[in-house]
Design a protein that fits this description.
It contains 3 helices and 5 strands; from the N terminus they run βαββαββα. With 130 residues, it is an alpha+beta fold. The protein has a single domain (2-93), classed as Alpha-Beta Plaits (2-Layer Sandwich). The longest helix has 19 residues, at 18-36. It is elongated, with a radius of gyration of 18 Å. The relative contact order is 0.22.
Length: 130
Protein backbone atom coordinates (compact mmCIF):
# COMPACT_ATOMS: atom_id res chain seq x y z
CA UNK A 1 0.00 0.00 0.00
CA UNK A 2 1.25 3.45 -0.91
CA UNK A 3 0.17 6.61 0.89
CA UNK A 4 0.65 10.06 -0.59
CA UNK A 5 0.63 13.00 1.82
CA UNK A 6 0.43 16.67 0.86
CA UNK A 7 0.78 19.65 3.20
CA UNK A 8 -0.11 23.03 1.69
CA UNK A 9 0.31 26.40 3.41
CA UNK A 10 -1.92 29.13 2.03
CA UNK A 11 -1.77 32.88 2.46
CA UNK A 12 -5.16 34.60 2.56
CA UNK A 13 -4.34 38.24 1.77
CA UNK A 14 -7.11 40.71 2.48
CA UNK A 15 -8.93 38.33 4.78
CA UNK A 16 -9.85 40.04 8.04
CA UNK A 17 -11.72 37.36 9.99
CA UNK A 18 -11.70 33.70 10.95
CA UNK A 19 -15.20 33.47 9.45
CA UNK A 20 -13.83 34.52 6.06
CA UNK A 21 -10.95 32.06 6.40
CA UNK A 22 -13.32 29.21 7.28
CA UNK A 23 -15.33 29.97 4.15
CA UNK A 24 -12.26 29.66 1.91
CA UNK A 25 -10.87 26.57 3.68
CA UNK A 26 -14.24 24.81 3.74
CA UNK A 27 -14.74 25.38 0.02
CA UNK A 28 -11.30 23.96 -0.87
CA UNK A 29 -11.64 20.93 1.41
CA UNK A 30 -15.18 20.03 0.33
CA UNK A 31 -14.38 20.36 -3.37
CA UNK A 32 -11.14 18.34 -3.07
CA UNK A 33 -12.93 15.56 -1.16
CA UNK A 34 -15.73 15.39 -3.72
CA UNK A 35 -13.55 15.66 -6.81
CA UNK A 36 -10.58 13.47 -5.83
CA UNK A 37 -11.96 11.20 -3.07
CA UNK A 38 -9.15 12.18 -0.68
CA UNK A 39 -8.91 12.72 3.04
CA UNK A 40 -8.51 16.46 3.69
CA UNK A 41 -8.41 18.73 6.74
CA UNK A 42 -7.09 22.00 8.06
CA UNK A 43 -4.12 20.81 10.12
CA UNK A 44 -2.42 23.94 11.52
CA UNK A 45 -2.84 27.70 11.93
CA UNK A 46 -6.45 27.40 13.11
CA UNK A 47 -6.42 30.79 14.83
CA UNK A 48 -4.56 32.75 12.15
CA UNK A 49 -7.01 34.51 9.84
CA UNK A 50 -4.53 35.20 7.01
CA UNK A 51 -2.88 31.77 6.89
CA UNK A 52 -4.20 28.22 6.47
CA UNK A 53 -2.39 24.90 6.46
CA UNK A 54 -4.22 22.05 4.78
CA UNK A 55 -3.40 18.35 4.69
CA UNK A 56 -4.43 15.87 2.00
CA UNK A 57 -3.91 12.10 1.87
CA UNK A 58 -4.36 9.57 -0.92
CA UNK A 59 -4.04 5.79 -0.82
CA UNK A 60 -2.99 3.72 -3.81
CA UNK A 61 -1.24 0.53 -4.78
CA UNK A 62 1.24 2.40 -7.00
CA UNK A 63 3.68 5.18 -6.02
CA UNK A 64 3.43 6.87 -9.42
CA UNK A 65 -0.35 7.04 -9.15
CA UNK A 66 -0.14 8.49 -5.64
CA UNK A 67 2.39 11.11 -6.80
CA UNK A 68 0.20 11.98 -9.77
CA UNK A 69 -2.81 12.43 -7.49
CA UNK A 70 -0.80 14.65 -5.13
CA UNK A 71 0.33 16.82 -8.07
CA UNK A 72 -3.25 17.07 -9.36
CA UNK A 73 -4.57 18.06 -5.94
CA UNK A 74 -1.81 20.66 -5.61
CA UNK A 75 -2.78 22.19 -8.96
CA UNK A 76 -6.42 22.21 -7.92
CA UNK A 77 -5.68 23.97 -4.62
CA UNK A 78 -3.46 26.54 -6.34
CA UNK A 79 -6.24 27.47 -8.74
CA UNK A 80 -9.26 26.98 -6.48
CA UNK A 81 -9.45 30.38 -4.78
CA UNK A 82 -7.82 33.73 -4.28
CA UNK A 83 -5.56 32.10 -1.67
CA UNK A 84 -1.85 32.00 -2.52
CA UNK A 85 0.22 28.86 -2.02
CA UNK A 86 3.28 29.85 0.02
CA UNK A 87 4.61 26.39 0.88
CA UNK A 88 4.09 22.81 -0.20
CA UNK A 89 5.52 19.53 1.03
CA UNK A 90 4.64 16.07 -0.16
CA UNK A 91 5.78 12.61 0.81
CA UNK A 92 5.16 9.12 -0.46
CA UNK A 93 5.00 6.38 2.16
CA UNK A 94 4.89 2.64 1.58
CA UNK A 95 3.21 0.41 4.13
CA UNK A 96 3.85 -3.31 3.97
CA UNK A 97 2.58 -5.97 6.33
CA UNK A 98 6.06 -7.07 7.39
CA UNK A 99 7.88 -3.79 6.75
CA UNK A 100 5.95 -1.30 8.87
CA UNK A 101 6.00 2.27 7.61
CA UNK A 102 8.91 3.29 5.43
CA UNK A 103 9.33 6.82 4.04
CA UNK A 104 10.09 6.73 0.36
CA UNK A 105 10.85 9.23 -2.32
CA UNK A 106 9.80 8.85 -5.92
CA UNK A 107 13.45 8.09 -6.84
CA UNK A 108 13.49 5.19 -4.36
CA UNK A 109 10.19 3.87 -5.71
CA UNK A 110 11.50 4.03 -9.28
CA UNK A 111 14.72 2.26 -8.26
CA UNK A 112 12.66 -0.52 -6.64
CA UNK A 113 10.54 -0.85 -9.79
CA UNK A 114 13.72 -1.15 -11.88
CA UNK A 115 15.03 -3.92 -9.58
CA UNK A 116 11.74 -5.80 -9.87
CA UNK A 117 11.91 -5.46 -13.67
CA UNK A 118 15.35 -7.12 -13.56
CA UNK A 119 13.81 -10.11 -11.78
CA UNK A 120 13.84 -9.27 -8.07
CA UNK A 121 10.38 -9.78 -6.56
CA UNK A 122 11.02 -7.78 -3.40
CA UNK A 123 13.45 -4.85 -3.19
CA UNK A 124 14.45 -6.05 0.29
CA UNK A 125 15.71 -9.32 -1.28
CA UNK A 126 18.13 -7.48 -3.59
CA UNK A 127 21.59 -8.15 -2.12
CA UNK A 128 23.33 -6.37 -5.00
CA UNK A 129 24.37 -9.57 -6.83
CA UNK A 130 23.15 -10.20 -10.38
Amino acid sequence: MVIGVLRVVLSLPGNDSLKGKRSVVKKIIERARARFNVAAAEVEDMDAHRRATLGFTVVSNDARHAESMIDTIMSFVAGATEALVIDRKSEILRVGSELGVVERTMAEAEADAARRARGFEDPEDDDGRE
